[in-house]
Specification:
single chain; alpha/beta; UDP-N-acetylmuramoyl-L-alanine:D-glutamate ligase; Protein-Tyrosine Phosphatase, Chain A; 2 domains; 9-stranded mixed sheet; 7-stranded mixed sheet
Length: about 425
């Protein structure tokens, strides 16, 4: 109740003021809004590249492409200034990554979207929204400001969203017949391919879940009446997003990857795809943020234990929670009868058939252990931090880079070879 009152009497007036102050700049732009639990940034990055390849001057507002922003969707003051700057600079289109927090707090109030799409709704942000129903309703607000709604027909909450919106709807999916349905899906170690509406799609991003991101982008793209051939050409070499499926090169014969997966759903999809394309063992480094929804932590532990061979459970942004508490809540989801804990002092894998895990509070130590355990042909994925350049412990931000953490671990292993 208090948060609702704050949104109405504090956040909404600010949104109205800054909209008027900057002369409602978004009205002079064509906006495409992307919301969802997972896949927003990847879909936004793809859409921007697609529009640019059609000769359109297209801006983007997202987690990784807006320097200096500490939230995915900035405050109304910052947001309206960005729109105004884009408009003055001759941009015609802007892709907006829109979060449930931003929608609840009216940050995008007064903006109008030509097209809005949702990637999925899964377990996340319940520390803020309290219930999944509240979370779904927050996401659905985006479609009250858009001309066209693009929905994931396979999503568990599709019917809930469908009932809440009253604009023309276009669907995409794999399992359920949709306006854009992927068929003949094939995944190899080097590419993903499928057909949709008699058009073959091939991409070098070999992750199962990329099918949904491509379908969502295609549905939005076709509402803008753009060239389908440019679409298929663009996805062949999928646009890179920093910290998403980012390869870190090494000379140890290892496949080492940085990914932002930080929800049960994204961790599941990332590990599932990597397991299908890994030659050796699959090792995952991950943790959970402090001061956020603790109910997802055991779910992530359970997913890691089912899909990975080895998990190194470590610190993410702990904030003011104890790392010991966070890690134990993750470990609570692991079936300990089928698992074996690794002793960091004597890191041996005695039974290769069992799932192995380690509880390593220091994140760099976790990288060091993962690389020490790895053998040529193994895949190691670091999940949760992605593109972020700092790690928050207490109230202090410390410099951090996942790629540099890998490189430090590579050097240590090379020194001991």
């Amino acid at each position: 109740m208090l948060s609702t009152l704050k949104n109405i009497f504090w956040h909404l007036p600010q949104a109205i003021f800054w909209n008027l102050y900057y002369g409602r700049p978004s009205q002079k732009l064509t906006l495409i809004g992307v919301t969802g639990t997972d896949g927003k940034t990847t879909t936004c990055t793809l859409l921007q590249k697609l529009l640019e390849n059609n000769g359109l001057k297209c801006g983007i507002i997202s987690t990784i492409t807006s320097p200096g922003l500490h939230t995915t969707s900035p405050s109304p003051k910052v947001l309206q200034k960005i729109f105004a700057d884009y408009q003055r600079s001759g941009f015609t289109h802007v892709i907006c990554e829109v979060t449930s927090h931003a929608l609840s707090q009216y940050r995008y109030f007064g903006t109008h979207f030509k097209v809005a799409l949702i990637t999925n709704i899964t377990h996340e942000h319940l520390d803020y929204h309290k219930t999944m129903d509240n979370y779904v309703r927050a996401k659905a607000k985006l479609f009250t400001q858009s001309e066209i709604a693009i929905l994931n027909h396979d999503d568990d909450y599709y019917q809930d969203i469908f009932r809440l919106i009253h604009v023309p709807q276009i669907t995409y999916g794999i399992k359920n017949k949709s306006d854009f349905t992927a068929q003949k899906i094939k995944l190899t170690s080097t590419q993903l391919s499928f057909t949709v509406n008699n058009q073959k799609m091939i991409t070098d991003s070999n992750y199962d879940y990329q099918t949904y991101n491509i379908l969502a982008a295609l549905a939005a793209y076709q509402q803008l009446n753009l060239d389908i051939n440019i679409f298929s050409q663009t996805i062949r070499h999928f646009p890179n997003s920093k910290g998403r499926r980012e390869i870190v090169d090494n000379d140890l014969g290892l496949r080492t990857i940085v990914d932002f997966a930080h929800t049960p759903n994204s961790l599941d999809h990332t590990l599932s795809s990597l397991k299908k394309t890994s030659k050796g063992r699959l090792i995952v480094i991950f943790g959970a943020t402090g001061g956020r929804d603790p109910s997802k932590r055991p779910l992530m532990g359970q997913i890691a234990s089912k899909l990975a061979d080895i998990a190194i459970i470590t610190a993410d942004d702990t904030r003011e929670e104890k790392i010991e508490t966070i890690n134990q809540q993750i470990i609570a989801g692991i079936d300990l009868d089928k698992s074996q804990k690794i002793d960091p002092e004597h890191p041996e894998i005695s039974d290769p058939k069992k799932f192995h895990y380690a509880d390593i509070p220091n994140r760099q130590d976790a990288f060091n252990l993962a690389i020490a355990l790895a053998k040529a042909g193994d895949t190691i994925v670091a999940c949760g931090k992605g593109h972020e350049t700092s790690i928050l412990h207490g109230k202090t931000d410390y410099p951090w880079s996942e790629a540099e953490a890998f490189r430090t671990a590579f050097r240590l292993k090379n020194e001991h070879v």
